[in-house]
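Reopening closed ticket. The problem is back. First fold of the pair:
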Amino acid sequence: MTNKIYLYAVSLDEIVQKGSSLREQRQQIREYKYYLLSNILGTRITKDDMSYTERGKPFIHDKNFSFSISHSKEYYAIAWINEQIELGLDIESLSRNVNLGVVKKTLSKQQRSYFVSNGQKMTDFLYFWTQKESFIKAKALSIYIGLNRLNFETISDSTQNNLVISEYDNQIYRMIPFQLYGQIGTVCCRSSEIDTLGIVESIA
């Protein structure tokens, strides 16, 4: 097994055509994944090549390949690896403003304690947020599970790519945080062997 997950991020301005309606923009964003997957895999990928797990997680027929997609208001990102693993990605803009009510509803007691004691830094909140969202995507869980119920105990952070135990299922996951192009994000994967995130500059 390779120990590297790859990440590519692109500005939404490069995906969405100027003058498009909101509906057209959403469609362009949805369709963009086929362009990316086709270039990553070196073969044309269409919606007919896609299937979904019982929980609605997409995968590609007959490919030893896992991917996850996320986008903020500014960027679109995809993470992938040539293995079949549970993989999740979430990104948020570092400029995002969040009120304390959302913080209280989102963070667990332990996370809120750290957030307050460390000066209520928005980067801390966004890391916790993307950690939870990437876990939800990796597991294909409902967002209604309750973000404040998700908590992770760090068991190794020697490389800053934390190995954690999830209180949700008592399993070990790798959480790989990153900051890129004014975005903050986390890649979550169900493999302790993977510990490297490779940033891809272009896909063509």
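Second fold of the pair, where the issue appears:
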Amino acid sequence: MAVSISDLHVAFGAKEIVHGVDLTIGDGERVGLIGPSGSGKSMIAKSLLGLLPREARLSGDITMGDVAILSSDGDARGATSAYADERTLADLRGRYVGTVFQNPTRALNPVMTVAQIVGLPLVLHYDLTLTERVERVKAMLDKVGLPQDALLKRPHELSGGQRQRVGIAAALITSPRFIIADEPTTALDSITQRAIVDLLVSLVDDAGASMLFITHDFAVLSRATMRCYVLDKGRIVESGHTADLLAAPQAGPTRELVSSARVLTLRAERVGADADSIDSAEGGAA
């Protein structure tokens, strides 16, 4: 699904958070949105989903496929824009747009089982029998690499990486055409991060879906996207192919993010090397 954001402004009272953002995602394309904490990344994600607080004021245009999510009420700069009706938004979010959230511990309902969490979108948006839902949930657990005995477990009984796999399964169970991954690896260690990113990319590509991958870490983004936008203080300061921005960042905020990514990558490599050394030593001792 192709996605287009044009001249998006988001404000709360007199304070504008997002300043005239333009962003496009092609059908089947994986695009990144990177920026430091507080730069407005999540505001853009919530704008795409129609989930901003009521007091937020928006202007600009957002389209997903052939659906106008947000439309300007005129040509005047700063004119208020209006969302599509809630029924349209709810159907779009459930059937065609899946979201993987930052913190699976907070995003997953703690009193529901894995089967209930992953199967809920099917209950809400499709007329399936219980047997059909169970079969689809089991198949999705296989795809995300979770054992079948996880079906009756609750989130607190799973590791952080397993919880995020449940979140990915719930986001993809309806075979959406567009995935929003909002910092999906932030709460995970570096080794688990890599596994989750590779899994998500594989599933999105297999489904032929588009993805917006939101993060503050270029090291993660380089594994997930081919093209990206750099956001700083609510403005796009640079965009291009991810590899090009990593190799030769031009804007100051981009250079800072690339520098941080290199430091984190070196630390992760040292941790991996230490783990390999420990494994080798234990093997030799055995």
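Update: turned out to be a display glitch only; the data is intact. Residues 266-286 have pLDDT under 50 and may be disordered. The CA atoms of residues 49 and 90 lie 9 Å apart. Please close again.
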